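User: Quick sanity check before I run a bigger batch. Here is a single chain. Can you write out its predicted 3D structure?
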Amino acid sequence: MMSTQQQQLHDLLQQYEAEMIALRRDFHANPELSFEEVETPKKIAAFHRALGHDVREHVGGNGVVATLVGAKPGKTVALRADFDALAITEETNLPFQSKFKGRMHACGHDGHTATLLTLAKALNRMRDELEGTIVFIHQHAEEIAPGGAKAMIEDGCLEGVDVIFGTHLWAPLPLGNIYTAPGPVMAAADGIYITMKGKGGHGSNPTDTKDAVLIASQFIVNLQQLVSRRVNPLQPAVVSVGHIEALNPFNVIADQVKLKGTVRTFDEEARQLLEKEIEKLLQATCAFMDADYDYQFIRGYPAVVNHPNETLHVEQAIAKLDDITFERCEPQMGGEDFAYYLQHVPGNFFFTGAQNPEWEETYPHHHPKFDFDERAMMIAAKVLGQATLDYLSKS
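Assistant: Done. Predicted structure follows.
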């Protein structure tokens, strides 16, 4: 049986559901890229100011932080949503499709923002019953490292915060399900940038060259052995090369080849090991071919590591909600700069299933035809709201 406070929250969210969908569609039609967000943070700040919240703009760059102080003293809960888009041209043909070529909300951040704004409006109506403070963190630039989270933290967005919760609408997972787990749930996301330096020449006379394409090919094939033969098999890891560039005519042997790839790990020891082993393999490959190389291992976001007590807290909140199923999830190899918040304060990050069961095909995140079931926003709002109310009442 629902408590009075829980029932009030659910009633308010239902009352505002149409507005939540309208907000999402407005953000979707007007996407802004990472570190280029101007109008989106203005809309977010105006929404919170209309509710009477204390608002800080330009936090860590383009971030917005709004604060709701309850009528009674207590702990401080932070809730985070990101609002940047991707450099993708949309192909969904939705009536609210992006108005801008080369810009699209292809990851659900428009839904994250609409969810948090609507939840903020509902919780604002409950101000007189709230025991504590709620900080709404609207983060810019999640999609591109170094991301917005680190800069927002350095600019004080977590000052006085006791716990933080966040979610990601996850289109590949079924609607009505919430997925989370204690410990690592998303990977550290690092980049490798390599230039193989050989000696170019005519394709008809290969003996006078040091074929950078051949060198790069040998390196890529052997690279796959690092995970299987160097990394502890109990520690998941991925090394993938996604970009090879050798710009030459068909009959010219390349003097250099550029490679770009990604490294995904959950364990810091495995992360450091791969950084060193990749360069050792580069040295050995180039020494055999009498070639040279440039190598950069650029660290991206660390792993998202949920705190056990706060994860249990979210699980217990979900158990109070009808028609929402909880499952422990396997770690995802995707990256998220929510990781930085969890390095500073305890908290939990969970996935909200957003797959429409009636769609014939569900497109993955970062695809030009990506979309999610808008009903997932209500589910996310209920879980974030319940976790917040429960935490404040416990305090």
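Residues 268-288 form the longest helix (21 residues).

User: Great, the batch can go ahead then.
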